[in-house]
Amino acid sequence: MSFSRLPRLLRIPLPTLIRTVQIVAVYHLFTTDIASIRPCGGFSMLPTLSHDGDWVLISPLPYRSVFRSSSSSSARGPRRGDLVVSINPMKPNETVCKRVIGIQGDIIEVEPRRGRESIWMAEEDDELGNGRVILRDVDSEGRPLRSRRKGEGQWVKIPKGHVWLQGDNISNSTDSRMYGPVPVGIITGKVLARVHPNFTWFSDPVQSV
Amino acid sequence: MTSKAGPFRRIPLREVIRIAAWIPVGIFFTRNVYSLAHITGVSMQPTFNPNLSTSPLHHDVVLLERWSIRMHQYCRGDVVTLWSPQNPDLLTTKRVVAFEGDLVTPLPPSAPTPIRIPPGHAWVEGDSHYDSLDSNTYGPIPLGLINSRVTYILWPFTRFRPVVNGLGKAKGRVRRFTGEVI
């Protein structure tokens, strides 16, 4: 091969080029199919993952059909409590890291936090002149101090092939409460461990009661 | 060294490694550039498998173009493959009818009240009027499920042709975010 017309730095011998292509392909295959280590930032997974980008170990293998136990239908795909990486349903170029709260067939309350706020208010003095301060969540006319949150008291049944994803920091997370149940097809892998600051395996947080 | 007869004894290990090193390159190519697929269902009739009822063993073989999905170079009317939202192991073929911001009037089994497609989603439909499980059943789908664009019918050879961009059954039911109705 003659690359003599190219600048000197670009005169790469063909075998080196071929070897590079092969190595890049192996790397790509490994990261997409076996495991990859990537930073995962943002405030939505506090306190499990820090906001300035913890490096986590992600693997799609737990959800491959070969490695799934086919004994029960609920064993297929992600399980409740798994930490997963998914393509962002609103922005296909981005990925998000969330926790699986519910799987197909579960009935979930969209907004689990109660929207009403209570404040300390002074009651009027009684006959003896004793004032006291009590915690109230309605004003003097009996109206709630704060309206219900959107989705509070609203229950959804998760359709077939979908899961419900939420961040651990539910006060600052864009998740299924915003975009609804997520198809399992866009979940790219399970987060197995935090690698960079203090290596820890993420264990199954779900306890049966 | 005992040399036994047989064709496999003669291939040196070096040669095996040299060939095996190309396997990941091939996998990369089929996943990100081009690959082939055969279509089994009836949901895209008459575009694919038009004679499936008379010859049930003949399946169309199509060419899938994958890099255009990576680059997000596909538009309304293109035929794409996507992972079924209801079954993550099933790859389905549908036509993209609408993108985010468009207003679509669904067909049965959905109620015919217009739906605004949310950001990052698309409305996909099969071309068949009868046997299609599509967005009219499961609603808008995230673009992340879309996996390739179907560009050519390769087999049977008599029907070799490019898969053209078309309306499917969407005529008059989509108001684009720009205001025009198609």
TrEMBL record, chain A:
Alphabetically ordered keywords of this record: Hydrolase, Membrane, Mitochondrion, Mitochondrion inner membrane, Protease
Superkingdom, taxonomy of origin: Eukaryota
Major localization class: mitochondrion
NCBIfam families in the cross-refs: sigpep_I_bact
GO terms under biological process: protein processing involved in protein targeting to mitochondrion; signal peptide processing
Protein name as catalogued: Mitochondrial inner membrane protease subunit
Subcellular location: Mitochondrion inner membrane
GO molecular function: serine-type endopeptidase activity
Organism listed in the record: Tremella mesenterica (Jelly fungus)
Entry similarity comment: Belongs to the peptidase S26 family. IMP1 subfamily.
From TrEMBL, chain B:
Compartments reported by the entry: Mitochondrion inner membrane
Organism taxonomic ancestry: Eukaryota, Fungi, Dikarya, Basidiomycota, Agaricomycotina
Name of this chain's protein: Mitochondrial inner membrane protease subunit 2
Membrane topology summary: Single-pass membrane protein
Cross-referenced Pfam families: Peptidase_S26
Gene Ontology cellular component terms for the protein in this record: mitochondrial inner membrane peptidase complex
Similarity-based family: Belongs to the peptidase S26 family. IMP2 subfamily.
Biological processes, Gene Ontology terms: protein processing involved in protein targeting to mitochondrion; signal peptide processing
Chief location category: mitochondrion
Domain Peptidase S26: 22-105
Active site: 43, 94
Transmembrane listed as a keyword: yes
UniProt keyword annotation of Protease present: yes
UniProt GO MF annotations: serine-type endopeptidase activity
Top-level taxon in the UniProt lineage: Eukaryota
Entry keywords, A to Z: Hydrolase, Membrane, Mitochondrion, Mitochondrion inner membrane, Protease, Transmembrane, Transmembrane helix
